[in-house]
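Revision sheet: C-alpha cells.
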Amino acid sequence: MTARARGLVVAIDGPAGAGKSTVSRRLAARLGYTLVDTGALYRAIALAAREIGISWDDGPALGSLARRLPLSLEPGDQGSRVIVDGEDRSSDIRTPEISQGASLVSQHPDVRVALLDLQRRLGADGGVVLEGRDIGTVVFPDAEVKVFLTASDEERARRRTAELEARGAAQPIDQVLAEIRERDRRDSTRPIAPLKPARDAITVDTTALDLDAVVETLVGIVRGATSTRSD
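Predicted:
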C-alpha cells in the first residue's frame, strides 16, 4: 500500500448513538489528525432540501442538489464546522428531524455518488479520522484503521436523550429509542452502502465503557497500526 502524505486514514463507522461523533473528535485531537464528519454532509443535504422544498424521497432532485450545493467542512472547537453555501449551519443540522432526514436522504444512490468524491478528497492524503456509516466499506475500503463502534439500543437511546436535553430539545426516551431502532433498520437494509462492519474492522462495544476508555482503546488500535506500517 502506498504511504499517504499526512498519516493514516482512520475509518470509524457505527449506528446512531454509539458515540462516534464525540469519540472521533477526541481521537482526532489526540492524534493531531483532521476530523471529517461525513454524516454532517448528509445532514446538510437534508437541511437544504427541506428549506427549498425538495422531498427527502426524491432521489434525482436530491442528487442534483448535492452536486451543486456549495458544501465544505472546516475545523471548529467542537469538531467540524459545516459550511453550506457560505454559512455555518453546524447547529441547524443537529436536530432530531434533520437526523431522520439524513437517514432518508442517504438511501438515494444519486446523493451517495455526489458526495463520495468529496469524502475521498477530504481524506486522500491521510492524517484523518472519518466518521460515518460506510467509511470502511465504501468510502475508504483501503483505510489503514477500521473501527465499528456499537452499543446496546437502550444505552444509545439514553445517550441521545441526554444529548437532546443538553441542547434544550428534550424528547421522551421511548420515542428516542423507537427512532434509533427505525434508523438502524433503514440504514442496515438500504440497497446501497448499508450500515455494517467492514470485513476487517475491529468492533468496539461501548455499552459499558466511558468516553475516556473508548478513546484510549482506539488510540491503542491506531498506534498498533502505525507501528505495523513502519516495520
